[in-house]
Amino acid sequence: MTKVWVLGAGQLGAMLQQAAYPLALDVHPLAPEDETLPEISAADIVTVEREQWPDTALTRHLSSQPGFINAAIFGRIADRLYQKTMLDELEINTAPWLPVTASSHAEALHAEIGEDILLKRRTGGYDGKGQFWLYQDQGDEIPSDWLDAAIAEQKIPFEEELSLVGARDADGNKVFYPLTLNLHSNGILMASVAPLERVKHLQSQAEAMLGKIMDSANYIGVMAMECFRVKDKLIVNELAPRVHNSGHWTQAGACVSQFEMHLRAVSGLPIKAPEVRGQSVMINLIGVARNIDWLNIPSSQCYWYGKDVRPGRKVGHININHPNKKAVQTALVKLRPLLPENYGAVFDWVQDELAKI
Ligand code: ATP
Ligand code: MG
Fold this sequence. Notes:
Elements: E1 3-7, H1 11-20, E2 26-30, E3 45-48, H2 57-63, H3 71-78, H4 80-89, E4 97-100, H5 106-113, E5 116-121, E6 131-135, E7 150-154, E8 160-168, E9 174-176, E10 180-185, E11 188-194, H6 203-216, E12 221-230, E13 233-240, H7 250-253, H8 258-266, E14 279-286, E15 300-304, E16 314-322, H9 325-335, H10 344-356
Parallel strand pairs: 1-2, 1-3
Antiparallel strand pairs: 4-7, 5-6, 5-7, 8-9, 8-10, 8-12, 10-11, 11-14, 12-13, 14-16, 15-16
Helix pairs in contact: 1-8, 3-4
The structure holds adenosine-5'-triphosphate and magnesium ion (MG).
């Protein structure tokens, strides 16, 4: 069996492992802190399920392997400064930005990019962590520990957030899932809906953008592109060179999930355009205790990550999928009382979107 080592042992690694079974691939997620170094042969594949990793004996061991895929690109994408520079070089729309240097001042940033500015730490941010808003009318200053460690981005008055998950193989073949509509709250993904007829006209624009990015990096595997939609224009928010939370619905809603697609691409197996089945909705479980009644919701799959529950922490997700939209709406009505009250706005948003279809 071909061995695939995964740098990172969170839920994404676990779901890659789950997807590997029908491909007869032997997937081993590894936590960066693991002290035992596995014996890796030249024929083995090494991939990642996280963008950032600490410098440990294990991460050095994995990233020095000949089978380490996309080695050249990870450093560039993990640092927002390089990622944004790369997007500018490729002439791909992205929120106007400036580097935050040691001598940056809020006033100068406002003069160049606008009244409302989002500072984002160059590395290490996720789920809205590593963000700081600078509002000119409040006279905010750049906190000193953000100097030389962040980029400043113009606030985009977007209508909605869409993401595209695609994959590329070593021969340059590319496949894409349909655009996914995402709802974030405080920087955390709460829910996704796909496919959506009303954004179909943006699909080719999105594919051209992500295709160009993957080709330019000679990228192999799944990559996700998070976008803002302003009228009919897509603006890239950020890239994730890995399987992505907004692609979790593909576990239920596509003939090949993003996890299987990634494994196919990195291990040289055929990738094929994923046929999408029915209507999918994904609800993230954020900081909620496990409720076994979720397992009774019709037309759904429940993924529980087995992590300690903490406020704001992603601890699982629920995919709802059915050929008939009405069945998805019914499942949501049943799920709603099984989640905390703060999910009310999430359910309203999803139900509104489904009603428009
Ligand atoms: P992830 O968990 O996806 O890695 P993150 O915390 O790294 O996210 P971003 O995706 O850059 O950070 O931002 C999180 C959310 O903050 C976005 O999905 C969006 O809702 C909001 N946001 C980010 N950048 C901007 C911007 N320039 N203008 C307006 N809102 C923004
Ligand atoms: Mg994001």
